[in-house]
Amino acid sequence: MPELTGFAVIGCSKCRRIMSADLSHATKTCQCGHKLDLKKTKLIAVFASADDAAQAVMQMQERKNTGFTSAANYSRTLDK
Ligand SMILES: [Zn+2]
User: Fold this and answer.
1) How many angstroms does the Cα of residue 71 sit away from the middle of ligand 1?
2) pLDDT digit string (tens) for 36-58?
3) What does the alpha-carbon distance between residue 23 and residue 80 come to, in Å, rounded to a whole number?
């Protein structure tokens, strides 16, 4: 299996935040503190450059806000 290189778009399995991750690293720590093993995490998309990955993350976050529960709504539910 060829080694993956580039920048992946991944979703945190804990807080569902979408973020980009450098595939040259083994893990990515989410802003919520959850550590994601990049070999076990589903890669939503892979890009050659960090800029492309960041742009895809922004687009997905916009789409998420129109269809699914946004991260803000999600934490508000937990605060209750
Ligand atoms: Zn998270």
Assistant:
1) 10
2) 999 999 999 999 999 999 999 99
3) 37
Q: What is the whole-number distance in angstroms between the Cα of residue 3 and the centre of ligand 1? A: 25
Q: How far does residue 70's CA lie from ligand 1's centre (Å)?
A: 13
Cβ neighbours for 63, distance < 8 A, ≥ 6 positions apart? none
Span from the CA of 12 to the centroid of ligand 1 (angstroms): 5
pLDDT at 64: 65
Contact 41, 34 (CB under 8 A): no
Q: Both tokens of residue 37?
A: 């093993």
